[in-house]
C-alpha cells in the first residue's frame, strides 16, 4: 500500500476527491497525513476521514528555507512514500525537493508548459485561448517545470470567468490525480523513470 502525504493551501476539493478514492477498498494508496502552510479550509476533509493534519504557517518563518525545513520535519514523522501538492500555493525550497524527488507530484490547472505559476486560470483567460487544461507533474526545482505524467485539454467557453473555468478544470484534475496516484501505487507509473527520461536529451 502506497502511503501519501497531501499538502494544501485552500479549499481542498481535489484532496477530498483523493480521500474519497482512497476510501474505496480496492484503491492501492492511503493518505496518512494532510499538511498546510495556513489554516486551510480543506483540513475539514481530512478531519471527516479521521486523517491527521499538521500546520506549518508560512507567516511564522523568516525564510522559505526555514519554513521548508520545518515542513520536511513534519513530513518525516509520517514517512510517506509520496507527497502530493494539491493546491499548495508555495514553492518548496530546493532542499525539500531534493530530499524527496522524484516522489513529489503537483496538480496544476493548465496544460503545462502553458500557464505555469499561481494564476494559471486567470492567465489562460487573459491570453484568450480557446482551450487550456489540467496537468499532473513531478515536482522539480522550477515553477511547474517538472516532467508531465498526465494531462488533458479542457475547453474555454464564451463567457467564462476565472471561477467557471476553474470549476470545469478541477474535475479533470481530480480524475488525473486519482489515476496517477493509483498507477504509482501499482508500479505502472515509475516516477524515477519519468524524471530520468525528461532529463535525457533526445
Ligand atoms: C487546484 O486547481 C490546483 O491545481 C491549484 O489550486 C487548486 C486547488 O483547489 N494549484 C495551483 O494553481 C498551483 N500552481 P482545491 O483547494 O479546491 O483542491
Automatic annotation (TrEMBL):
Molecular function in Gene Ontology: phosphoribosylglycinamide formyltransferase activity
Task: Give the main EC class.
Answer: transferase
Keywords noted in UniProt:
Purine biosynthesis, Transferase
Q: Where in the sequence is the active site?
A: 108
Which positions in this protein are listed as binding (6R)-10-formyltetrahydrofolate? 64, 89-92, 106
What InterPro entries does the annotation carry? Formyl_transf_N, Formyl_transf_N_sf, GART, GART_AS
Q: Where is this site: Raises pKa of active site His?
A: 144
Alphabetical list of Pfam families matching this protein: Formyl_trans_N
SUPFAM superfamilies associated with the record: Formyltransferase
Q: What is its EC number?
A: 2.1.2.2
Record-annotated Formyl transferase N-terminal domain positions? 4-181
Q: Please state the pathway this protein functions in, per its UniProt record.
A: Purine metabolism; IMP biosynthesis via de novo pathway; N(2)-formyl-N(1)-(5-phospho-D-ribosyl)glycinamide from N(1)-(5-phospho-D-ribosyl)glycinamide (10-formyl THF route): step 1/1
Respond yes or no to whether keyword Acyltransferase is given for this record.
Answer: no
**Catalysed reaction per UniProt?**
N(1)-(5-phospho-beta-D-ribosyl)glycinamide + (6R)-10-formyltetrahydrofolate = N(2)-formyl-N(1)-(5-phospho-beta-D-ribosyl)glycinamide + (6S)-5,6,7,8-tetrahydrofolate + H(+)
Family matches, as CDD domains: FMT_core_GART
Superkingdom of the source species: Bacteria
Positions of N(1)-(5-phospho-beta-D-ribosyl)glycinamide binding: 12-14
Q: What is the similarity comment for this entry?
A: Belongs to the GART family.
Q: What does this protein do?
A: Catalyzes the transfer of a formyl group from 10-formyltetrahydrofolate to 5-phospho-ribosyl-glycinamide (GAR), producing 5-phospho-ribosyl-N-formylglycinamide (FGAR) and tetrahydrofolate.
Q: What is this protein called?
A: Phosphoribosylglycinamide formyltransferase
Q: Which organism is it from?
A: Microbacterium alkaliflavum
* Gene designation per UniProt: purN
Amino acid at each position: 500500500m502506497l502511503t501519501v502525504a497531501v499538502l494544501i493551501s485552500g479549499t481542498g476539493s481535489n484532496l477530498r476527491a483523493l480521500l474519497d478514492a482512497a476510501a474505496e477498498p480496492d484503491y492501492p494508496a492511503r493518505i496518512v497525513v494532510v499538511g498546510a502552510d495556513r489554516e486551510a479550509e480543506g483540513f475539514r476533509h481530512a478531519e471527516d476521514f479521521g486523517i491527521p493534519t499538521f500546520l506549518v504557517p508560512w507567516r511564522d518563518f523568516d525564510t522559505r528555507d526555514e519554513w521548508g525545513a520545518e515542513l520536511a520535519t513534519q513530513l518525516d514523522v509520517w514517512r510517506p512514500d509520496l507527497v502530493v501538492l494539491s493546491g499548495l500555493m508555495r514553492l518548496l525550497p530546493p532542499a525539500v525537493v531534493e530530499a524527496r524527488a522524484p516522489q513529489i507530484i503537483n496538480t496544476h490547472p493548465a496544460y503545462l508548459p502553458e500557464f505555469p505559476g499561481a494564476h494559471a486560470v486567470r492567465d489562460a483567460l487573459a491570453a484568450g485561448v480557446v482551450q487550456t487544461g489540467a496537468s499532473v507533474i513531478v515536482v522539480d526545482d522550477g515553477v511547474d517545470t517538472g516532467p508531465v505524467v498526465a494531462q488533458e485539454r479542457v475547453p474555454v467557453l464564451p463567457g467564462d470567468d476565472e471561477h467557471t473555468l476553474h470549476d470545469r478544470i478541477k474535475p479533470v484534475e481530480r480524475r488525473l490525480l486519482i489515476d496517477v496516484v493509483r498507477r504509482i501505487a501499482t508500479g505502472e507509473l515509475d516516477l524515477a523513470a519519468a524524471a530520468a527520461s525528461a532529463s535525457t536529451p533526445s
